[in-house]
Amino acid sequence: MQRTAFDADMAQFRDSARRFFTGQIAPHRERWREARCVDRSAFRQAGDMGYLCMWIDERHGGLGLKDFRYEQILIEENVAHGDRGFFFWLHSRLVAPYLEHFGTDEQKRRYYPGLQSGEQILAIAMTEPDAGSDLASMKTRAEDHGDHWLLNGSKTYISNGLNADVVLVAARTHPTKPHGLTLFLVERGMPGFERGRNLQKMGLKSQDTAELFFHDVKLPKSQVLGQVHAGFHHLMQGLAEERLLAAIYNIASARLAWDITRDFVRQRKVFGQPLSSYQNTRFKLAALNTEIEVAQCWVDQLVAAHNAGQLDAVDAARAKLYTSEVNGRMVDEGVQLHGGAGYMEEYEICRLYQDERVHRILAGTSEIMKEIVARATLDG
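User: That's the sequence. What structure does it adopt?
Assistant: Structure tokens below.
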């Protein structure tokens, strides 16, 4: 299907991004997968291309490129031609915007140059061993000691956890309010800030996912991001965009899985005929192709809504739910149609299956997305 959402300048940008991911990211995939961590140099190379935090205003030394379609192009091209474990988009579009929305001018002057260049890498730390989507159960605490805050607790499943130089940490600061959280900027090297294991995951093996520990970390008041006790509300403002990012990623992954499977069934022969000639294969891939194209149209529409400042949180939840389920169906059917080869890690469809299972969990599980939609449609 011919997509109409992108103009000629964006087509040139896509070509440049494809060359970057093909030439500078993809060749390192196997080594990163074995090391279970992307090289920090990948972020610096992306920064050299101007691909990090493209939305930062020119007055802060940025490109001022706020059209979300450019971010969409980068994600799509990285999924198709780079390394799915390279979470530059988490750095640029999930974490850094909190600085834009809630940071002081001093914080922006201090952090923006390194974030754009890739010299400083971002992560966000919300999830705890006993508190995933339920932020009200968070146990990590920060106490006000007059001229500083004292941070104690632990976080887990933190993407970019080993590479990160600055971690946006959510901690409880109000003893009685369930949502009395505050956001803090914790920097590499601060006494008491330690990293745990590089967690061994089912998929996305090149992406570093770590445990973080905070033992009496002394934080100057300048490390508070936004308003004290308002961290929960700050986090909620970023969730719609996070789920749109997930939807973009999901459809790009589903499309890649479809393309890989199409190529395989055309070549694979069963009883002397290409597997693609059998009705079961044709009908299943035709149905999945239709789902992918319909979802792509919807995601493109939501990107346009986001550009107009009209992205609805419920629509973002719907998109994240639907695209993750389409992606899941596609990679599962792709493995099935590959037969025994689909179970072998040397085949990309096997790795896609491993990588994409988490997308029905991260950015809010499918069950949480259904509850958001149910509240909007049944309880209003």
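The first strand starts at residue 122 and ends at 125.
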